[in-house]
Amino acid sequence: METVVYNSKGQENGKIELPTFFNAEVSSVLLHEITTAYLSNQRSGTHKTKTRGEVSFSGAKPWRQKGTGNARAGQKNSPLWRKGGVVFGPQPRNYYIKMSKQKKKLSLNMALSVQFKNGNIIVVDSLNIHEAKTKKAMELMRNLKVDGKKVIFAVSKNTDANFKVAVRNIENVILKNIENINAYEVLWTDKLIITPDAIDMINKRQSGVI
Q1: Domain count along the chain
Q2: Burial level of 152, CB count in 10 A (0-12/13-18/19+)?
Q3: H or E segment at 170?
């Protein structure tokens, strides 16, 4: 399975053979499960409301039981009162959902396959620029016709330092080490731009070499 390789000017510069997992069978159920788990694991779970036992109020009875014409009242921390405790409010909890390594691996294969079949993966021969300036990165994106979209540059460890600096201030553009990429991020992006070095790295990762 081949795809076109582009240069920094957006011109075709040969072809590259993609690993077989770019053509994996897709399970929407697994992709939904892994996406839900990823989003859930981003939650801090630190939400907290005070119960009537935690509200700072005197325990004294507001008024006597009978004879005032008011309804009976025992304490001011009642949920019925302003600034009283909250009934069944959110409490701190852990939202973490554990996913097996096999599911993570399969879901990444599927996500890459979906994006490749939809024409959303662009292979670029290199991401080297001479100056660490945002306009240089924007020029590259215009040449690849991806400006104004959600873009992930999936790169290897050896990516040009100037390029790393140039893209970090561009909205909806993420520079991601291919070794740490996950299925949710692949599905989130409109265009996944990847280098041959990164393809080699992800092939070793998915094959269990590293």
Answers
A1: 1
A2: buried
A3: none
